[in-house]
Amino acid sequence: MHIPQLRSILLSPEPPPTIRLTAMAALLVLGLSASLPSLSNGFTYDDIPIVRDNARIHEVASPLTYLGQSYWTPGFGNFLYRPVTIQLFALEWAAGGGSPFMFHAVNLALYALVTLAVFGLARLLLPFGAAFAAAALFAVHPVHVEAVANVVGQAELVCALAALGAVMLYLRTRQSGGWTTGTRMSLAGLAVAAALAKEQGFMLPGLLLMAEVTVVQRREAWQPRARAVIEALAPMMVILGMIFIARGLVLGGLGGGAPAMGLQHLGSGRRLLTAAAMTPEWLRLLLWPAHLRAEYSPPEFAASVAFGRKELFGTVMALCGVGAWFAARRAQPVIAFGLGWFVVAILPVSNLVFTTGVIIAERTLFLPSVGAVLAIAALGAAMLARWPTLVIRRAVLAVLAVIVVLGVGRSRSRSRVWRDNLILFSQSIADAPRGYRAYRDYGIALGEEGRLPKAEEVLRRAAALYDRDARVFEELSHAIRRQRSCLDAVPFMQQALAVDSSLTLSRSRLYYCQLKSGQILAARETAARGEALGLPEFTPMRVKADSMLSAAESPPLPPSPRGPHN
């Protein structure tokens, strides 16, 4: 193919069907090449409580059953509401007999569909070549590995697929004419699927409004335009409101999950500072994801306490992003749309509005990354339009090819890290040696494998890095007790309770260790404190200790006189 023909195809909004099919096949090959190693992964991390050990999904129930349940099982807290995701897990468990292969195969299939959906959205906004570049970057992006290689990342995949479908439907309808009942209901249905798969789905109206103010090109007065938007969004907003109410009833509140360690009790000012400090890391992960990690935890990543260099850098970057949005809105609307998409999608997991269960998590960047690749591809297309020389085109293609090859290699190597917990957590220590949680999780996994001396060593390192997580001391005391004696473990049980007095397991273990070592009064105080905290299981323990103390304090009865034997 001659260069002029290639240039015509790349810049064309609608190339021949054979070229379109070839491009789609190439995207599927790229996505599968990057993610195929995950098929051999087992259940890791949150897969274990949510899938492997979750009896609720081991038999398929009706959708109404899952609509009345939280995402996490009661033993882990009544947190999150993702009935679509749980329903899919139940179907996959039944189809695969509980094999992790079935779950990973579904994740790969969903990833392929999301990649094609990104391509479809990009083709509505960009020349064919730029659209292909956006989807290719998305297909091989290493930051997606956590969402694809970890089973529970399926929530991200389903949410993104539904959101992309909704945005494409919205754009096509706005470009072609008015709304029908069918298109409005389809849009609302996609919003339901997104919101019931993952919480970021509630941001779909924001994505549609961002599309309206950037890439929807219609010459209308604001009144009819506003009316068209309201017609489209009204059914969706009503249904999303109903889902939000149902969510609150099931979870007994917002149910967003326990705040990540170090983010508890943050006011709005410190949340703003924390979000500013994390902004450079989000952008690094999107633009140069060479260094990935499963954990972003204190003391390396923690809530900001003052306005320092990281916060200043993040604030400057955010202000530059706002300026770029306003500058691009008229001249380069797709760039503005991509920037706006990123902001809207990252907002629920940014800890800016409310604290979440993560400081940063790579899986939460899956939906925001769609905006990033759209903006990058649009920027590249604008550069080629401004400097349309053969040298520039070849340079851009060469850079894209290198990035794609590097992305495939990095994604493949990273996918293997998620094979099992021991591999994941040992690698996490190498990836995040200054974060305590990598040590904590690896120590717990070692303890479950019976490697107690190593577990103790790793957990002591976690405690040295961060002393505000009670579970570190709970697991450390358990490892010491199993190796040596109760008496050696008592100080760590006490430290766990000093951090979190509501820990019933540590309190029970402390009580029995104190009894075993003859510290009956101390055991009585341990049980009484639990009773005072409203934990009824400690009442009989306190009663037992009282009885033992009474028996110890009572003088022995004299022997009964023995009369003559008749």
Question: Would you write up a description of this structure?
Answer:
- The chain folds into two domains: 10-417, no CATH class; 486-552.
- Helices cover 69% and strands 0% of the residues.
- The protein is built from 25 helices and no strands.
Q: What class do helices, strands and sheet pairing give?
A: mainly alpha
What is the domain total for the residues? Answer: 2
| Terminal CA distance | 125 Å
Beta fraction of the residues? Answer: under 5%
Q: Can you write the helix and strand succession as a string?
A: HHHHHHHHHHHHHHHHHHHHHHHHH
The radius of gyration is 28 Å
Main pleated-sheet profile: none
Number of helices: 25
Query: In which range does the helix fraction lie?
Result: 55-70%
The shape, in one word, is elongated
Low-confidence stretches: none
Mean pLDDT, all residues:
91
Total strand segments: 0
- The quaternary organization reads as single chain
